[in-house]
Specification:
By secondary structure, this protein is of the alpha+beta class. It folds into two domains: about 1-30; about 35-100, Antifreeze-like/N-acetylneuraminic acid synthase C-terminal domain (Type Iii Antifreeze Protein Isoform Hplc 12, Alpha-Beta Complex). It has one helix at about 5-25, and strands at about 35-45, 60-65. A two-stranded antiparallel sheet has the order 1-2.
């Protein structure tokens, strides 16, 4: 093999090695500790405006604090018996302002 023809191959191998190193580094990140998580409440199916929240419509989900909206509801008990002010899609985080006052 001529040295000029191996140069692109070596460059490609170096690039692949760098990318694999970055992926391995990202995978090695520690999982967030419970103190870095926040509980949010999500709807388990689509709900329309005026629907009254029941236990079966709700689920708690743990998110990294940095990803959780500051105004997210943090417990199912805060929602049960209250009506939704707007339509929400399944899996959507419930915000304080999404619920009618008790």
């Amino acid at each position: 093999m001529n040295p000029a023809s191996t140069k692109p191959l070596v460059s490609a191998l170096v690039l692949i090695g760098c990318l694999l190193g970055q992926v391995a580094g990202a995978l090695a990140q520690p999982a967030p500790s419970p103190k870095d998580e926040q509980v949010v409440v999500v709807v388990t199916r689509d709900v329309s405006k005026g629907t009254v929240a029941t236990q079966s419509l709700l689920a708690e989900k743990h998110l990294e604090k940095r990803l959780a909206p500051i105004n997210a509801v943090s417990g199912i008990s805060e929602c049960v018996g209250r009506a939704f002010k707007r339509t929400l899609k399944s899996g959507q985080i419930i915000l304080i302002e999404d619920l009618e006052n008790p």
